[in-house]
Write a structure and sequence with these properties.
Structural class: mainly alpha
Largest sheet: none
Strand content: under 5%
Number of strands: 0
Shape: elongated
């Protein structure tokens, strides 16, 4: 009876090890997919970067230290 239980426990451990390896591979694949997605869809286009640089160099911007200052400025306008 004890031999059967030990055999069952060994089989369960083996199954868990195989499952752990599969999860590790899946995690690695997901990290790769996220990296590819981020690079593909979250990279600014060159023309957008040039336009942002142009706007930044030609426009005058007001900086606010916090939202309260921004709110006051809007209310005063």
């Amino acid at each position: 009876m004890i031999e059967v239980e030990e055999s069952a426990i060994a089989a369960i451990r083996s199954d868990f090890q195989a499952l752990r390896e599969k999860v590790d591979r899946m995690e690695s694949m997901m990290e790769s997919m996220i990296e590819i997605y981020t690079d593909t869809f979250c990279t600014a286009k060159e023309e957008c970067l040039k336009e942002l640089e142009r706007i930044e160099s030609e426009e005058e911007f007001i900086e606010f230290s916090d939202y309260e200052d921004l709110r006051k400025s809007i209310e005063e306008s």
